[in-house]
Amino acid sequence: MPEIRTGRRKYYDIFSRVYDTFIKLHARRDEGATRDFLVEVPDLEDIPKPVILDICCGTGAVIVAFANKYEESFTIGYDFSHGMLMKAREKPGSQRVRFVEGDAASLPFADEDFDVITCSHALYELKGEARKAALLEMKRVIKPTGMVLIMEHEVPHHPVVRLLFNLRMMAMGSADAREFVKNGLEIYRKIFPSASLTHSPSGKSKLIICRK
Fold first, then answer.
1. Domain containing 36 — which CATH number?
2. ∠48-51-56 over CA atoms, to 5°?
């Protein structure tokens, strides 16, 4: 793993100790609604045992929600941070999820394994080539009938909130990350034949739905 990714992994290993508290303070009441929205988008009722992968799963909130909704599903939470995965395993319902540690740009799964792949508020942290590699890997492991759901922050409309948002992006030290968040569907349409855009109920996050 490149040195910069190793540094980020150490950062998230430490951050994992307060991550859930931070998200609650940052997202407030939008957290649960945004997660529920993401879980409701794919209609998997007609698939007896859907196979679901959450890339960059963090402390597991999204993938545990999928496991709870689809009790017969086979669910995998995937993250490069050991600390995040340790915290994910502590969540109620996490015993139904398999957690795997690894790099999003190199998935250890066979071709066309998954009915649904999700990645929530994480791709912007990857550099251009690593991000492209991660998207290509998602395309490789999703089934022809499946969908890839990528949720990212939307640029805020309120000037004060937008300023704080831009300061946060600047603090990450990556102009590439800022451009990625601001851009629309171009990067996805270069990889997936189909990519459409919708938004979370609060409007604070955008959801890109990709298909082969």
1. 3.40.50.150
2. 150
Integer CA distances (angstroms), 55 to 67, 71, 168, 184, in order: 15, 20, 23, 21
Which residues partner with 55 through β-bridges?
Answer: 78, 119
Range of the domain at 66: 3-211
Predicted structure pTM score:
0.85
SS3 212: coil
Tell me which DSSP letter residue 172 carries: T
| Residue 3 pLDDT level (bands cut at 50, 70, 90) | very low
Can you tell me the distance from the alpha carbon of 96 to that of 128, in angstroms, rounded to the nearest whole number?
Answer: 34
Query: Total domain count for the chain?
Result: 1
C-alpha pair distances (Å), 61 with each of 34, 122, 188: 11, 14, 25
Lowest mean pLDDT among 119-123, 125-129, 165-169, 195-199: 165-169
Give dist(CA 182, CA 209) in Å, integer.
Answer: 17
